[in-house]
Design brief:
With 261 residues, the protein is α/β, with parallel strands linked by helices. The protein has nine helices and twelve strands. Strand 9, helix 6 and strand 10 form a beta-alpha-beta unit. Magnesium ion binds next to helix 1.
Length: 261
């Protein structure tokens, strides 16, 4: 029997995304896909638009052009009369966002809430899970990231690495289809980078679909199955980690990777 050829289900598809801030064109037509279980790394110089691209995926930044497919749902945007871009279907956006976990460089935990309160908030408010159920799951996830013993601590009592692991647990609590990481270790002291990367690596090994913006080239090479190099608002080069990291073809990427050699 011949298998049908076009049955690939993409977890994420980004089509021809453009974004400018005033006259500054940051994204000039970026497209990529990730299948379920893919770990996609996005690399590029500071200011190349990596965060903007990641934020376009959940419309934290609303693209000027292009659409985003999450599973079978399509996020589109349009201009209001005054020219500002808005997400075309707010209800759909809410539904899609609940299925995308995001982890930021600066953790973004709620400082006036304990660790476990941070983790249960989303499931209770958005998924209407009972507090008891949300708490049990939160404790399980905190255990997974090695922080069950900190459940009742406040974020300010934790190290940066611990706060970031809580942020990961908080994202996981929503059972996201896709995890988006924006330089999750960039704000950390060097000795804390490893503990966060270990958690991310474990998620990759479990087959989670992840899009990871990172400066940790060695880690990206090991953990991802696809990598994109952004330059000048475009995807300058993409491929397997072996292609992108070991055999870069563009001069720009060769220069970017040079300090590693
Ligand atoms: P990266 O994450 O690769 O460092 P960013 O996506 O954060 O790059 O930023 C790309 C460019 O867009 C930078 O020049 C930045 O200053 C600009 N930029 C990002 N967000 C905004 C914004 N909200 N308003 C104006 N300019 C922005
Ligand atoms: Mg950034």
């Amino acid at each position: 029997m011949t298998a049908p050829t076009d049955t690939t289900t993409y977890a994420v598809q980004v089509h021809n995304i453009h974004k400018a801030f005033a006259d500054h064109k940051v994204l000039k037509g970026i497209s990529f896909q990730a299948q379920q279980g893919d770990v996609l790394s996005i690399i590029g110089a500071s200011g190349s638009g990596k965060s903007t691209l990641l934020r376009c995926i959940n419309h934290l930044v609303v693209p000027d052009q292009g659409d985003v497919h999450i599973g079978n749902d399509i996020l589109r945007s349009h201009a209001k009369r005054d020219g500002t871009m808005v997400s075309s279907d707010p209800k759909l956006l809410e539904h899609v966002r609940a299925r995308l976990g995001m982890v930021f460089q600066n953790f973004n935990l709620w400082s006036h809430r304990t660790v476990v309160q941070n983790v249960i908030e989303g499931p209770i408010q958005v998924k209407r899970v009972t507090k008891a159920e949300a708490t049990a799951y939160a404790l399980h996830l905190l255990d997974k990231v090695g922080l069950a013993h900190k459940a009742d601590a406040y974020p300010s009592e934790l190290s940066g690495g611990q706060q970031q692991r809580v942020a990961i647990a908080r994202a996981l609590a929503m059972d996201p289809e896709v995890m988006l990481f924006d330089e999750p270790t960039s704000a950390l002291d060097p000795e804390m980078v490893g503990e966060v990367l270990r958690v991310i690596r474990q998620l990759a090994e479990e087959g989670r679909t992840m899009i990871l913006v990172t400066h940790e080239m060695q880690f990206a090479r090991e953990v991802s199955n696809h990598a994109i190099f952004m330059h000048n608002g475009l995807c300058e080069e993409s491929g397997t980690p072996a292609e992108v990291f070991d055999h870069p073809t563009s001069t720009r990427l060769q220069q970017f990777l040079q300090p590693l050699a």
